[in-house]
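Morning. Coffee machine broken again, so started the prediction first thing and wrote up yesterday's gels while waiting. Chain of 518 residues, entered below exactly as on the submission form.
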Amino acid sequence: MNRITKISHLFLLTVCLFIAGQQALLARQSGQLQINYTVAVADVDKQLFHVTTEIKNIKDSFVTVSLPIWTPGWYTVENYAKNILRFKILDGKGNWLQPIMTRKQSWRVETKNLKEIKIEFDYQATVLALNQAKITKDFAFFTGTQLFLEVNGYRNLPATVRFNVPQDWKIQTALKESTDPYIFTSSNYDELVDAPTQMGKFDVTKFEVEGKPHYFCATPAGSFSKEKTDKFVEMLQKVYMSQSKIFGGLPYEKHVCFYFFAKPESNAGGALEHANSFVSFAPVGNRATPEMLIETAAHEFFHTWNVKRIRPIQMFPYDYSRENETPLLWISEGFTNYYASKSLLRAGTGGKERFLFSITSAINGVESNDARKYISPADSSTSTWLGYDTGTVFEISYYTQGQNLGALLDLSILNDTKGQFGLDEVMRSLFKDFYLKGKGFSIDDFLTIVNRLTKRDYRNFITRYAYGVAVPPYDEILGFAGYYLDKDALKEGRYEVKEMSDISTEKMKIREAWLKTQ
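Came back before lunch.
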């Protein structure tokens, strides 16, 4: 992206942040509804948070509040309200108000002649997982989906959060800081519930990328040595910058990566993305190394754009009250898999051999699975809610299928445009033309971009290989860059990508464009 475009993007981010910062002030001055939360570590032994939601300047005759049933990015229904104890609503004078449940995680209360109400409950936090909350003697962790009630109809309002923690505990959160170290803010409800927060005793290493603060949090304290931390942070910086160059800058003001060197206490292990953070579980003890952790980090960081901002239309905006099915997770997750490997190559933290190995592994992962004959990448995306973290009896991964298609599309676009454009330009257009304009994208939108760049129609490709179960022409497309599938390996039932030794100038140009570093 050229310098002018990058400056324009950074200017837009600055304006957006300024507007967000003024919202709370305007709310107070104009009598607009105000929403303030307090999260207290109320009982470490009983593992209880105490959560308070204060709603002021009420002008409606009733107020409905709801708690999410799932955490975006982890496609399972968790019904967080099952962990709530002693839910109550009080008016401004402390009088008890009786709410009515309108849905399994929604409460309605009459507010005629009331200017403010306070909602309180305890939340039992007993599970350390990517989409759950846990309180231990040394730390507490949660994501906003578990604790923060949405005031229905006021999703775009800013909010403040105050934390009450034991005296010797520190706080690290993806929320915005204020002048008070215990008070943080969000611009809207989506930002609020997308923010992981950790309180307690853990290691924090601050580093900068493009002049913005970044934090690496390691729990338990002392679980990742300073030598490993320094090396990992250096690798993170390179990967972050390589991905930022695709889009012309970082779309946030700070970023936090939360690492637990512990076993997850549910099936929600691995890693989970957020708009300006991610959470990851890493091997316990000395087995964890920077080299082992970096590919997952590269995957989660690319989600900063792909799926957190560049989002399928079916999930824009999120509906926190039900499953959000979309046929496009092969783009959201599969392309992210592809860019994880590609950004390691570009950043110099993974060589050409590692990148080509990832291409080979993805092909084998798809073509060795009998389910690929029956289930398309689009259908695999839609059906993920059937068993996202538990599995089903017959399935295929849209992560791997999408990674495959991402590589093939990248090569095909490069070939059609004689190396001028690739998948980078598609992702950049999705970001600029959809996310920055406040909307999600459809498969037709995706096709329009690809067709515009290549000057040819890719609908048949998408129909056959993304929405159908046809086997892609691997040899043909890999051949654009002077690669082929080894026939001897194929006889043994496996795929192996090999490099042609003698190729034309045109193929060499495509190869260089595909494997270029930054």
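Confidence is low (pLDDT under 50) at residues 1-24. Going to sketch it on the whiteboard this afternoon.
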